[in-house]
Amino acid sequence: MYEIVMPQLSDSMEEGKLVSWKVSVGERVKSGDVIAEVESDKAIMEVQTFKDGIVKELLVKEDDEVKIGTVIARIETGATASSDQKQAATKPTIVPKEERITKKQEVNKEDTKPNAAQTKSVAVTPKESIEPTHISHKIQSGISPKARAKAAALGVDVAKIQARMPQKVLHAEDVDKYVTEKYFTPKALKLLQEYQLESSFFELNHKIDSDEVQAYIDANEIALPKPLSPMQKAIIANVTRSAQKPIYHIYESIDAKLFEAHQEHSITAWLVKIFAKVMMQHESFRSQLLDNAISIAPNASLSIAVADNKNLYMPVIKDASKLTIFEISEQLAAFKEKLKTNSFTTQDMQGGTFGISNLGMLGVARFDAMINKDESGIVAVGGIKDGQISVTLTADHRVINGYEAALFMRDIKKEASEPLNFKE
């Protein structure tokens, strides 16, 4: 039994439409006969058979769309059936109507029985070995079925479009371009593109300006789709990666008395100083997990969350354990300036092993933060209530176990209550 499948007419094609059958069940066919017409988004092509036989089954109805590779017909090849069954389903040869010279015509010209070499040349070719020229055809001019359908739906004269684009195959996007340029002003076209609106939403019998498009947008309360910025894409990728880490939280509070007594520097600056000191006593908090090892940094470097309405950055205070409180404050001030001017560099974001995110100054009581990149943990700093600063530690369980984290937070609370740590 010889099987004919829905062919792939273009690289982008996933499904094909069976336009019409040229044969019927029980009909005898010869190699080279056209058995069907199929349609992709770009052309209608004829499907030929490579084998002589009798049409046994037509498995797809006309106008049905099926995935490429789906068996659409079976041909009983008679005495050769047993040998044919050993072969995989085969793609038929596909040729454009205007260029087809059927093998049936070639065979009719022969006065003698084909020899062995001729028989071999028309044998079924396995699907995976068919030459690309058998399954594709570059049309030099014309209009694709989808473009013709779109033009008809919009009431556009195809001949006018073809007059503008001679020697070119017209596709649906060409029809769109013609319509938008003809019926929409430049400002109206810009709105169409921004809101991803179809030209078919409007009556194409006059020149449409931006006011008319805006009125349509307002009347239908259409949402504005905004493309993601490179920064937003980077944040999404980082957050998605962080969400895959096995984490846990520890909820604690720190005495706020000494922080409030030394307001010449911000709470964030003092926390950087204290956390950097304690990180030098707990190497897991200076660690990054590599493929087959854990990298332990010699000094404590902390990433600090800074953000505005649109962007979020995690610049790193490198070697914070070696810096004075003044130097830490200067770096935090530099981060704020770079945030305003959007001038952070890739180098600014590298080298951290632990992070700090402070939303307490915005009135947030407590929250959880996501670990940045390959760092081992992060602390989320909330507001002050009843003399206590709420902090939530998020740790990567692969690097820091719960016992280590508990000891770390115990030492943080101890150092935050030590007056010597607040000396300038």
Automatic annotation (TrEMBL):
Keyword DNA repair: no
A GO-annotated cellular component: cytoplasm
Cofactors that this protein relies on: (R)-lipoate
EC primary class: transferase
Region of interest (Disordered), residue spans: 106-142
One Pfam family in the UniProt entry: 2-oxoacid_dh
Superkingdom in the source lineage: Bacteria
A Gene Ontology molecular function term of the record: lipoic acid binding
Domain Lipoyl-binding: 1-76
Enzyme Commission number(s) of this protein: 2.3.1.-
Alphabetical keyword list: Acyltransferase, Lipoyl, Transferase
Entry keyword annotation includes Membrane: no
Residues annotated as signal peptide: none
InterPro entries for the chain: 2-oxoA_DH_lipoyl-BS (IPR003016), 2-oxoacid_DH_actylTfrase (IPR001078), 2-oxoacid_DH_E2_comp (IPR050743), Biotin_lipoyl (IPR000089), CAT-like_dom_sf (IPR023213), E3-bd_dom_sf (IPR036625), Single_hybrid_motif (IPR011053)
Subunit comment: Forms a 24-polypeptide structural core with octahedral symmetry.
Recorded family membership: Belongs to the 2-oxoacid dehydrogenase family.
Record's protein name: Dihydrolipoamide acetyltransferase component of pyruvate dehydrogenase complex
Organism: Sulfurimonas autotrophica
